[in-house]
């Protein structure tokens, strides 16, 4: 083969090789381009699918949210209906239970209201009566004041009446623990009558005399200025001092046997007493030096109650003494009984010994009386009566022994 043919063949082979490679490459490029387009299409479809999926997700989430909201609203509505229904039912039950619980109270409240209404009517009636009584008492007080201011005898009777009320309130008994208007005589045989003599234990006597100093005091209370008050208070103190001097001069403490060393000057008006001792602080000591003790209703009632308690203690002591004396008498009587009882015991012992000795003589020993008498019976004696079995048994036992 010539070189030209070889060259031509080589070129032909080379051309065929490169042509084949070119054709294959072209096919490859076309396939690659097709695949690239397919990939782009797929990527586009993927993007579209992802976008559609995202949109569907958003739509599904929104749908789920709306459904959840609707369900929530429905649930709230149902819950509200249930709660309202249950609340109404519960309220109804509670109302019924509360009505049943409060029914007795309702009845009690009605009865209380009725009684309250009745009480109001009665209280209104009582208040009206009290007002009328107060007005009446006020008029009577005015009349009493006018009477007391103008009549010394009326004043004295009024004071004695207050004293009598206090004595009754204390529990003391007239004729027992106290007496009124007791007549006593002095050395000149003149008669005196203290208002009250209160009897104390141990035969002591407490003398009380009521003295009313009211006219000047009423003027003092009704005075319109300090000058008048001072003038009427001076008159009031003069009246009290006059009563002190007169009562001291009577010397009741010397005339009444057993009287304590002082006489109680009773001022029945509390305010008049307070005004006097407040205006003249030395007034009480001045009276005391004359064996007079000034006393007001409050302190007198306390003194009388103390006297009542003293008498109660005295009665208890007397009862104790009586019980003690009775116990002594009972003890002495019981001692006599015990002595008699002891003698009776001794006599019983002596009698028992004598009985046993007599029984021995009847039933014991050979040739005792019972045996001899019974031997006569065995020999044909036919008495109408028989010996007691106890004696026969005792005799038989002794014989066997």
From TrEMBL:
User: Coiled-coil ranges per the record?
Assistant: 32-88
Which UniProt keywords are given for this protein, alphabetically ordered?
Answer: Coiled coil, DNA recombination
Q: Tell me if Transcription is a UniProt keyword of this record.
A: no
Pfam families noted in UniProt = RmuC
Source organism's superkingdom?
A: Bacteria
Signal sequence interval, chain numbering: none
Q: Name one GO biological process term.
A: DNA recombination
Q: Which PANTHER family match?
A: DNA RECOMBINATION PROTEIN RMUC
Instruction: Tell me the protein family, please.
Output: Belongs to the RmuC family.
What does the UniProt record say this protein does? Answer: Involved in DNA recombination.
Indicate what this protein is called per its UniProt record. Answer: RmuC domain protein
